[in-house]
Design goal:
Order of helices and strands: EEEHEHHHEEHHHH
Shape: globular
Number of helices: 8
Strand order of the largest sheet: 3-2-1-4-6-5
Radius of gyration: 19 Å
Helix content: 25-40%
Strand content: 5-15%
Structural class: alpha/beta
Oligomer: single chain
């Protein structure tokens, strides 16, 4: 079903490039996931990630592989160690996991923004709302949400320490993640080291842009169903630019990930950069049916962000082969679900 599994450690920080963004790719088998180098050869930015994803989906829809070009334009998939991409034709879809919340809590209050007139009522409407409010900010930055009239009062942010409508609301997926291993912070929290909202605003902007650019070529799970055999052609997307034939499976499936969950589910705590240790990382990868790293392993990122991308790619490959992995509870249709968290 999938021939590539890409884990993306995300960042909502302001600016054209973020050191915290790291990409790693796994292919079928047990091979250790490999780094995807950024277009500048130095740092990824959210716009560059968007462009890479569009190219990868286009390659899956056509005949080539997004990994055929690893030069300075950054449109290919560089591999850690040699920087070379693949020249193989795309054989199946690409499964991409990105580390941000795909939606806000809804089911606890039957609304994303309880009491707010005109609050969006579907995930697609939420993505559209965020994109519209933040449209004047480049690089998919989402910080304008925290100052937006009405909406800003729901976010605990540097702009609004006393946000009157902020509450520590949790999605059903986060409650399930906490019960089985570890959960992320509330999606309305935009302050502190465990800030989730800033990255999620940027991420939801990018989802909206990907749907507008790729149409049916990209499916966003669990809002659009995926079967064990192949991704199901999704329901009508938001303003598709290039829809593919309904008879064809989407070239790309996007899922929400939480790298810390995958470490903790393996019985390992990645705190204090523990994942920078080759032995620790090998044990974590082995738990997800992957070969380990070599003694020269040196993950990039100030918080060893590359390790988060690597463990996510390995977990995606493992989980996607697990029966029942595409099942999600009814709440997920409005709130999303973290891939791999038991229902």
């Amino acid at each position: 079903m999938f021939d590539r599994f890409v884990g993306i450690d995300w960042s909502g920080a302001k600016g054209p490039r973020q050191a915290g963004i790291q990409l790693s790719m796994a292919v079928p088998g047990r091979g250790v996931p490999t780094r995807i180098d950024p277009p500048s050869g130095h740092l990824w930015g959210r716009q560059a990630v968007f462009e890479w994803l569009v190219r990868a989906a286009d390659a899956g829809n056509d005949t080539g592989d997004a990994g055929t070009d690893t030069g300075g334009d950054g449109t290919g998939t560089g591999t850690a160690g040699n920087g070379n991409g693949s020249n193989e034709s795309a054989r199946g879809s690409i499964l991409v996991g990105i580390d941000f919340a795909f939606a806000h809590p809804f089911c606890d209050e039957n609304a994303y923004y309880p009491g707010l007139a005109g609050t969006p009522e579907t995930p697609a409407a939420l993505w559209q709302c965020i994109a519209d409010i933040c449209k004047n900010d480049g690089h998919f930055y989402g910080g304008a949400m925290f100052a937006a009239p009405g909406f800003g009062d729901y976010y605990l942010s540097p702009r609004n320490h006393g946000a009157p409508h902020y509450r520590s609301r949790r999605r059903v997926a986060e409650l399930a993640a906490k019960a089985s291993a570890r959960a992320p912070s509330p999606t309305f929290k935009a302050i502190g080291a465990d800030n989730v909202a800033t990255g999620s605003m940027a991420g939801m902007r990018m989802i909206h842009a990907l749907k507008a650019e790729l149409g049916d070529a990209v499916a966003v799970w669990p809002f659009q169903p995926v079967s064990p055999a192949r991704p199901v052609s999704p329901a009508r997307p938001v303003s598709p630019a290039r829809p593919v034939s309904p008879a064809r499976q989407p070239a790309m499936v996007l899922v929400e990930i939480f790298p810390s969950y995958y470490f903790h589910a393996a019985g390992l705590n990645p705190a204090r950069n523990a994942a920078a240790d080759p032995g620790f990382m090998t044990a974590a990868l082995n738990a997800w049916s992957s070969d380990g790293v070599g003694a020269d392993y040196a993950p990039r990122g100030s918080d060893v962000d590359e390790a988060d991308a690597m463990i996510s790619a390995a977990a995606l490959r493992h989980i996607a082969a697990t029966p029942g992995c595409w099942q999600a509870p009814q709440a997920a249709a409005m709130e999303g679900w973290i891939f791999g968290v038991p229902v």
